[in-house]
What does this fold into?
Amino acid sequence: MRIGFTYRFNSLWKEHCAPLMERHPEHDFVTDREITLKEIETFHILIGGIEPKEVYERARSVRAVFVPFVGVDHLPAQVFAERGVRVFNSHGNARFVAERTLALLLCCTGKVLEYHKDLAQGIWHGWAGKGISDTWDSIVGATVTLLGAGAIARWVAHYLKLFDCKVVCYRRRFTEGLPPGFDAVYSDLSKALEEADIVISTLPLTEETRGLIGKKELALMSGKILVNVGRGEVIEEQALYEALQTGVLKAAGIDTWYSYPTTGEAVHFPSRFPFQELPHVVLSPHVGGFTPKATVENIKVTVANLEAYLEGKPVPNEVDLHRMY
It folds into this structure.
């Protein structure tokens, strides 16, 4: 089989793929990223990230696609389903996204950015300011609702237990037993939101989750804190901005957005609404799972998935193309 790497085949990929290539010399591994569309037509397996639409349209011989990260909403699911293409992703960065989630949350409750900016101007809060009425909040003992119960959510739940939080989650379909770290699982979204002090979205973008949280749902979160590390469009853009602008939401930490820069753009705001002007919003440029350590883990998982596929073994992390996760 011809296996094409459309992802940049850097030193990390070389290090982790070399043993696989040595064990499987019967396959042709094409690692030059400057692959022509004509050559794409000859591949049976693609390893890559976000490719132009024409790449997938020309890849008519491809039987499997391996994505070295979690999100697959950029893939042409219907085309792949019709062609019988299998898709596998990687959850190797889940614990790192969870770490970023906690950082955003603690930044919101701890007023880290606000106090940093004020103290840089000589303005004090807390005991040296106005006393206990002018200080930060703790998440110890808080009730946290996680939207989603996948790998990221489970790591977040694990970390939150160190703060003695009550952790519940919303999941539309849940056939397993109660996952470790969770105190309850709800299929009723309203109930899950009403119970929370803090809401964290880890949901992927699918036809079912797009716009799941709108004006009605945000109204149920009055006085609460929201963190989004799933996908931006799970939460309606205008409704979110208005909920923050009018004070319905107490604060928000956001890592996933509605508008992304193209190559060469020096400045690009993440929304058509000025979230950056709101003092109680912590903005993060969609880097939750983008760290050196997370990158290595994603590569390891992807290479392991590929080897299992080549050897005809069960492959973990197969994406359901109808649900897109």
About this structure: The chain is about 30% helix and 15% strand. Residues 292-310 form the longest helix (19 residues).
